[in-house]
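Handoff note, outgoing to incoming analyst
You'll be picking up this chain. Sequence as last confirmed:
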Amino acid sequence: MDKPVIVKPDVLPTNRLLAIGLVMLAVTMFACLDGTAKYLVSVLQLPVGQVVWMRFFSHLVLAVLAFGLVSVPRLLRTRKLAHQLIRSVLMMLSTLFSVTALRYLRLDQTTTILFLTPLVVALLAGPFLGEWVGWRRLLAIVTGFVGVLVIIRPGFAAFHPAFLLALGCVLSYSLYILLTRYLAAYDTSEVTLLYSTLVGTVLLAPWAMVEWTWPADAFTWIVLISLGFWGGLGHYLLIIAHRWAPAPTIAPFTYVQLIAVTVIGYLVFGDLPDVWTAVGSAIIVASGIYLLRREQAVESGRS
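Most recent structure output, in case you need it:
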């Protein structure tokens, strides 16, 4: 039977803190990705298929340049081909759902729904990965979500079908994260990253070519190409983070993305932050710190 190279992540305190830092940096990259995608599809009115394909294609080009063209055949050798393909499709679907939702919803609305993801990951990590959480850590995760609600203060007057797209993104992205954690025991980060970009590029190419609209100027090209940078760096950092800490430990720190989104919303779309943002952010950070302390207590054998 095929055995994993690594059975469990190294959860030494130093590595756990490093993993948390990597996750926080990764989700900041994702905030830049979301802001850029929304700008392209809602302000510049570029087709969704073109934007999503360009995100994967530019990511693929950057990955090949970083790894070296001669390394590609070696990096395509995987011990878990089916899992790599499924994970890549889930990543592609989550991106499609998210970008399409961003065209119709405000950035903060979409982000609010997507922040259900850490809770879903923590709940599914037990049956899928054997990383069960106790009620205290689960409460910390829920408290972090309450902080999100404080910031956004959802009170949607009318239902829009795009909300269902955002929920589809939550489910597909949660499963993607769990598979990322699973594959970390079998393949290197480079292998997993290359599959993500290659599968998305190939599957989305026909759609992108059909509705392709040539960018009007060099600035638009730069913005399009930057999608690959934000997404590629973010997912690479996420892959590494899952090698060094269990999914339930680092999941609450993905809430940092909301702070980054708030800044981007202000700078790019003119959305002004308010006192509720500060209150909600404090709740999120507090829940994350408690979860980290609780994890340390469990490891040291305290109740």
